[in-house]
Structures are given as structure tokens and as C-alpha cells.
Amino acid sequence: MEKKDGISKPRPESPEDTIGAESVERYALSLGYKVEADFSRHLVLCEIVNGDMDRFSRRGFVEGWLSIPINHNMEEHKTYLANRTKQLPTDPSLFKKVYRHSFFAMMNRKISTKALDKGTALAAWALFFSPSLHCWKTPNVNWLEEWSAFLDEKWHRTISKDMWNQTLEFADKTMQDVTLGFWSEDQAWPGVIDDFVLWCRENKIVPSGKPEANSMDVDEDSIS
């Protein structure tokens, strides 16, 4: 740690303090999976070590694993990661943590440190909202397909953190109320969500009338 004015501050991260794509791939293999074949497991690992898809910092790796009360050897890590991945579809809190961290894990930092490109986000949504993980489909509406179609047609920008986080909140609410009656233009939804609701009504995906909004609120802790 460096000290300035008596305050300890972390040193800037050097190349020696990180492992790159090849080392991340080898580490994944030692834990029993291939990155390109098991993205959900890899995203769980990235959340544990506060890492990117292809880059881990030494500090994030050490502190992440040491925060977990297990014996720290390869077999214990392998078992823990496998069990945590199995919990992903049934543990909403864990799912939300991994989903939110994935925004940072998947960014191409050579291009942006604040947004995902649309193609990456669409591929990630297809994974996260798949039937086996966190299905975004009701009996009469395949919301994932409609959301993807809407973005293909109407959205030509990158994906912000707020848009990423609020998409999960919106998805969960559509599973409770397929009429989108929870939505109100007075709430703090991102503009793209507002446009999607209007698009759904225009395309007869949901009733075109203006239903009464209920008391469900937007998750404000993701708006920052």
C-alpha cells in the first residue's frame, strides 16, 4: 500500500498483478469446464473473483476466494463453483448478483468502460433469460423474443448499466403481470423500457389500453 498524507491507498494495478485470457482459460479447465462451453459457470466465477471474462486481478482473485469459508485448494474451489452454478436458477439473490456483475465482466474495455455493445448484451440476455436459467416467457408472450426484436428494430446505441440492471427488474415484473399494468410513465424506468411498453401495445402484444399502475416500484438501488 502507498501512503499519502498518512492515508493508505492501493497501488495502481500493474501487468504483474493480473492474469490474462490464456491463464484464465487454463484456470477454468482446472476447475472442470471450458469458458466457451459454459458461460454461466464462468460468469459465476467472475463474480466470485470480481473479474472480467478474460482477465482477473490478483487482488480480486485472492480476496474473492478468501471471503468464502471453505478449505482453499483446487478441489474445494471446483466443488464450490459447481454447486454455486447449480443454485443460479433457484436463488434469486445469487442470480441478481451474477447478472449485475456480468455487465462489468463482459465489457470490451478497449472500447468502453461504461457500456456494453448491443450484440454482446443480446447474447447475454439470451443466456440469462433462457428457460433453464431464468425463463422470460409467459403462456402467451415470449418476452425475450419480443425484447430482442424490439432492440433489433428500434435501439441503435450501446447498453448502459442502468438499462442492463433495469431490464432484469422489468423482466421479473412482466412474469407477475403480463398486461404490463405495473408500468407507469411517471416511474423511473429507463426511456428504452418506456418505448418497449409502447411498442408492445402498438404491436398488440399486450392490451393497448392504459391500465392502472399498481404499487410495485422500480428497484432504485440500480439507478446510479
Strand content: 5-15%
Helix content: 40-55%
Order of helices and strands: EEEHHEHHHEHHHEHH
CATH domain fold name of the largest domain:
Recoverin, domain 1
Q: Which regions contain 5 or more consecutive residues with pLDDT less than 50? A: 1-12, 211-224
**Content-based structural category:** mainly alpha
Distance between the termini: 29 Å
Strand order of the largest sheet: 1-2
Largest sheet: 2 strands, antiparallel
List the main descriptive attributes of the protein structure presented here:
6 strands; 10 helices; 2 domains; Recoverin, domain 1; disordered N terminus; mainly alpha; disordered C terminus; two-stranded antiparallel ribbon; 224 residues
Give a written overview of the molecule.
The chain is mainly alpha-helical and 224 residues long. The protein has two domains: 9-90, EF-hand (Recoverin, domain 1), CATH 1.10.238.10; 115-222, Orthogonal Bundle (Recoverin, domain 1). Helix content is 50%, strand content 6%. It has helices at residues 21-30, 39-49, 58-66, 74-87, 92-105, 118-128, 131-134, 143-154, 161-176, 191-202; strands at residues 2-4, 7-9, 18-19, 56-57, 115-116, 159-160. The strands form three sheets. It has a two-stranded antiparallel sheet with strand order 1-2. It has a two-stranded antiparallel ribbon with strand order 3-4. A hairpin with a 2-residue loop joins strand 1 and strand 2 (7-9). Helix 2 (39-49) crosses helix 4 (74-87) and helix 2 packs across helix 5. The longest helix has 16 residues, at 161-176. It is elongated. Mean pLDDT is 88; it is low at 1-12 and 211-224.
